[in-house]
Fold this protein.
Amino acid sequence: MSRFKKKISGGTPAISTASLPDIVFMLLFFFMVTTTIRDASLKVKIVTPNATEMQKLEKKSLVSYIYVGPPSTTALRETFGTEPRIQLNDAYASINDLAEFVEKERESRDESEASKLTTSLKIDKDTKMGLVTDIKQELRKVNALKINYSTKQGKLASGS
Amino acid sequence: MSKKKARGVPQINAGSMADIAFLLLIFFIVATTMDVDSGILTKLPPMPEENQPEPPEINDRNVLTVLVNAKDQLLVEGTWTDITSLRETTKEFITNPQGKTSLPESPTKAVVSLQNDRGTSYNTYIQVQNELKAAYNEVRNEVSRNKFGKNFDELTADKQKEIQAMYPVKISEAEPKNIGGN
């Protein structure tokens, strides 16, 4: 009898939290592995066009980005105007800097992987093709032929 | 004295380990960007070498000319067209189901020639590219379903190559002109 009494008076037992660090570590490792830390802060406003026939970019480490669009904040617009500009890494660049940029991107990779380098063009949809064509010509000159036009999944929207 | 020696290294309190792990966890959750970059993959043609032989003349029936002007209007084979009908036109051009003499002899010879103005908007350009690509994808899907009973994406690499050889994507982009100003 005394045994039963003891159980009732004990109340709810405390849940062991000893495995909590293990669970947290598991989550931590998951996020550490999936994380790609954003490396460039955008100075241009980019709304990519919609498309339906898209392919995913296979290896993120083998992609270099070129951003094109109008300056994003009013402060930047006052100094640089509203015309679309090219951004490489963290700063505005001119069309002539592209060759050097591609060269640097290649150097930072393994020699065997440098040929697989894809250039992803993140271009605002209101940009005129003149600038885009200049970029493409520049890429052709340095033999960076694999390119990707970054787009959003979605129905085609006509006009801008 | 002897009592102290026997104790050995004292245990480290691991109670705060969870806190440290939480701190790191929150940092990585905040810093994570999970979006996968995707888009339309294409390959640019290499720069023409000097004193390269002239490219062979292509028969007029094997070329689908698509022109886009600065006002984002389309001219396909000399007629004004809407973007919505471009896909069907391209599909008919690639497959030539009725064997017309104005359309290519075989899909392997079909070339889509795309030319845009410097004033064309990037949005329109992507839409045209998208429609052309969609036309090719649809044709390839239809053929692979007829032949192998599966969609093109689900085929093995060998069979994909076979269909790619039958329906090669040949989109040639001419050097842009500057007609429409800007």
In short: The mean pLDDT of chain B is 82. The two ends of chain B are 92 Å apart (CA to CA).
